[in-house]
Amino acid sequence: QLAFLLYNDQPPNSSKAQNWSSRGHTKGVLLLDQEGGFWLVHSVPHFPPPACSAAYSWPSSARTYGQTLLCVSFPLTQFGKIGRQLTYTYPLVYDHKLDATFAQKVPYLEDVVKGHHVPHGPWNSSVTLTSKAGDTFQSFAKFGKFGDDLYSGWLAEALGSNLQVQFWQNSPGILPSNCSRLQQVFDVTQIAFPGPAGPAFNATEDHSKWCVAPAVPWTCVGDMNRNLREEKRGGGTLCAQLPALWKAFQPLVKAYKPCGEKKTFLSRNLSRAHKS
């Protein structure tokens, strides 16, 4: 017996004429049985195909640009918290299966399927989640009425660290790097995979949404960009202090945009400044 939710602000088979901007800028999958399941947080438009599809497929629209997908297995007890977080992010659920048994055990998921969202402030929520393997994750979720950037308006302070943020930078109203608060937020401008043969490319060629702390092992993977429109939309990110995850993402930052300057700095400069 399985339950699932598929949500995406750009669902499969949708057209550009359809406007889902009232819903959260959020993409993901929940799949669970009576013991537990997984939460897949990703950045891929038009993915995955609905359950009625004959087979798995990867959308052609996602072949050109980089994407992120973070899949974490959780025991059933954690899905109540996850469901509540989704009432903040306000996802567009385009396919689901949630019978009465699961709806009773995880009532927040039924609210999400019905298109309900958090009715009153505070308009943001963070919860601690424990994975099936015993690892600790921190989920950050905001509703549109939060009215601020996820990263500079909340996340950096909550994690107590500067952040380097990779996001889709081809949309209007991109927010510049922000140094107005104690914890600074920098827009990544170039990405490079390690090694002499590792490819390097500009952030404008990458649709993924993630951030890292430069000198402490915080890594977050989510579904929000840094632009004016998304200050007023729901969305979130899933963070962890897992050294292996941090070591996979932190070296990818080749360059970032410093505050108030047009040129970019290599990421190693920020790490040195943070350590000094």
TrEMBL record:
One of its GO terms (biological process) is apoptotic DNA fragmentation. Its main location: other. It is an enzyme of class 3 (hydrolase). This is Deoxyribonuclease-2-alpha. GO terms for cellular component: lysosome. Its EC number is 3.1.22.1. Pfam families: DNase_II (PF03265). It is found in: Lysosome. GO terms for molecular function: deoxyribonuclease II activity. It comes from the Eukaryota. It comes from Mustela putorius furo. Hydrolyzes DNA under acidic conditions with a preference for double-stranded DNA. Plays a major role in the clearance of nucleic acids generated through apoptosis, hence preventing autoinflammation. Necessary for proper fetal development and for definitive erythropoiesis in fetal liver and bone marrow, where it degrades nuclear DNA expelled from erythroid precursor cells.
